[in-house]
């Protein structure tokens, strides 16, 4: 799990990204395409064309980090927009990284009555 400090925003880069790209290239995408500062401390999540691999770019104030996660089965749920970025909460990011639909998480069990 990525230790996200409070106040850090999480951005999903909509569309798909070439997963051969590294830190510098993804940081350049954040700066030029998303019009955001890649060194401001926010997290930026990119998804590959197949949908089973994401890369997360984060600058923690000391240096840039690049995290990757590939699902063994299924695909990451992604916004349908084709350009730009969508902001999500840290909790929604945690759902997404577990392969859960972060847009509408469902409880596995709900009590029917209080007594």
Automatic annotation (TrEMBL):
Gene of this entry: tnpB
Source organism of this protein record: Bradyrhizobium diversitatis
One Pfam assignment: TnpB_IS66
PANTHER family: BLR8292 PROTEIN (PTHR36455:SF1), PTHR36455
Superkingdom in the source lineage: Bacteria
Protein's UniProt name: IS66 family insertion sequence element accessory protein TnpB
